[in-house]
Structure formats: structure tokens, C-alpha cells
Amino acid sequence: MSGIQSALHPAGVQAEHIARLWDVFLWVSVVVYVVVLAFLAAALLRRRPEIVPNAVDPRVRSAVSIAASITVLTLLGLITASVFTSRSIASVPEAALQVGVYGRQWWWQVEYDDRDKSKRFSTANELTIPVGVPVTLHLQSSDVIHSFWVPNLHGKRDLIPGKRTTLTIRADKPGVYRGQCAEFCGYQHAKMALWVNAVPAVEYAQWVESSRRPSKVPSTPQERKGQQIFMSSPCPLCHTIQGTDANGKTAPDLTHFASRRSIAAGTLPNRRGFLAGWILDSQHVKPGNFMPPMVLEQGEVEPLVTYLESLR
Ligand code: CUA
């Protein structure tokens, strides 16, 4: 699973403002620290003057006022820098592209909305966006407070039950950026990651095109058997696979599951062995998640995994 997660490697316009502000704070703090320590060292090394009770040396008085003024000016400077950064971050215009992001315990539901209902589609734990285009995310939560944070692209924004918040991001470099829920939201808060794929416009259009298509029809006996196992198990009660009878709404949409890079919100790489382990005993991998353990007959796991891994 590639992609660095770092606020100091900005790949988007807002993250760049934030990284610049970080540099200002860092270097100002370094200078202040060095100066304070230098004065401390000088004071310790100096011979102590005789102490005269009730008398304040006028030089001490002016030194204290100068130091206080410098401190106030430095703090004002930092506040100003911070205000300007907030302004430039907020000045990114509302985008043409709108995506719904729902925080769930403990995964991300991603909804690509469209006026035409037949063009809507849903995915999970992965957000694909075109490079250089502002994208407004509509953030909502259906359970507890989560926080959307993709450090390479922007700061954090909370997802609050009953309240819709928005965040506009713009990736300026193509790449894969890791994001993480940044608000403690229960047992598996740490395993609530997502990936942002920033791709060129042409690739984005192709991706949308293929995401709108219903799931791939099984083409081998093994895949057909896997689909039957899936449909006769409890899986369709929670998961949707477009083009089949599975239309559960409480768990990730699996229509194009095989094209995603991870299982269970960044917990495992999306590969056969991991998928089999996840299906058989997801509670061992991510305790407390809402997927119950599956009771499968011998010989049922292979075809089921084959079918799921065919859903490109
Ligand atoms: Cu969701 Cu922490």
C-alpha cells in the first residue's frame, strides 16, 4: 500500500499554505529558544552583582520592557501569519465536483452523487479525484464524531452526526495520499484509514465511467459458484453489489471491490490470502467491527474469494 502520509510533503494548495505556516512557526520558535538559552547561559556565567534591597537597577527595568515588547511583537506576528494562512485556505472556490463522505465505525463511505440517479455510485475507503480540480467533500457521520484528515492535501475537518460540514481539496500533483480518521471514535479508530487517488483528468473520466457500470458478471464456473455462495450467505444483508440482488446499505459497496487497494479501511492489503482471513474471522483482524464471522463449508472460501477478487 503505497503513499506517504505527511503534512510536510504538500501535494495540494491548502496543504502547502499549512506547511509554510509550519515553517514560520518552527523557525521563529527555534530562534526564540536559542536566544532564551543564550541569555540564561550568560546570566549563569556572569558574576552576581551585590544585591541592594529595594533598589531596581534602571538597566534591568529597560531590559525587561524590551524583552516583553519583543515577545508581544513576535506573538502578534505569528497570529497575523496564522490569520493569513486561514484566509488563503478558505479562498479556494466552491468546486464543481461534489463528493459525499460518510464516517462510519470504522470505515469511510464515499458517494459520487449525480442528478441522474443512474449515474450515482458508491465506494469505500478510497477517494478518486482529478488533479488540479477543486473537489468539495460533504462530510457527514451516522454514528459518532470522526475527523477527515489527508495531511498531504489539507488540514482536518470533523464529521459530526446531524451536521453537514464541507471541505474543499485540490490535489496539484498526481499520486496516492493516505488519510486517517483524526478524532478518537471508538475501538478501531486507528484502523480507519482511507486513500486519495489523484489522477489526470482523462484517467478520472475513465474511472468514473467504469465505476458507474454494474458489477462484472461471473465468467468462470469458480466465479459463478462464488457468487452463489455470496448470495446465499448473510453478506447481501449488509453489502451491495450493483447488478445483483445484494443491496445491503450498512457495509461497504462491493461492486468494484477488487479495484480497491485495501480491505477494512486500510487494515489489510487487498489480496486473496488476506481477504480469505478477513471473511473467515474479521473479528480477529479488527476486533469490534460490525462484520460477523462467516461460517463457511469446506471448499466455499476459494470460490467466494475468487468471485470477490473478480469484481474489478
Ligand atoms: Cu473515525 Cu476515529
Structural overview:
36% of the residues lie in helices and 19% in strands. The chain is α+β, with helices and mostly antiparallel strands. The strands form 4 sheets. Strands 3-2-1-5-8 form a 5-stranded mixed beta sheet, with no helix packed on it. The longest helix is centred in the N-terminal third of the chain and has 33 residues, at 13-45. The mean pLDDT is 91. The structure holds dinuclear copper ion (CUA). Dinuclear copper ion (CUA) is lined by residues 103, 106, 146, 181, 183-185, 189, 192. Dinuclear copper ion (CUA) binds next to loops.
For the sheet with most strands, the description reads: 5 strands, mixed
Structural class: alpha+beta
Oligomer: single chain
- What global shape is seen? elongated
Overview in brief:
The chain has 312 residues and is α+β, with helices and mostly antiparallel strands. It has helices at 13-45, 58-90, 201-212, 221-232, 272-285, 301-309; strands at residues 97-104, 107-112, 121-124, 126-130, 135-141, 146-148, 157-159, 165-169, 175-180, 193-199, 262-263, 268-269.
Overview features:
single chain, 312 residues, alpha+beta, 5-stranded mixed β-sheet, 3-stranded mixed β-sheet, 12 strands, 36% helix, 19% strand, elongated, binds dinuclear copper ion
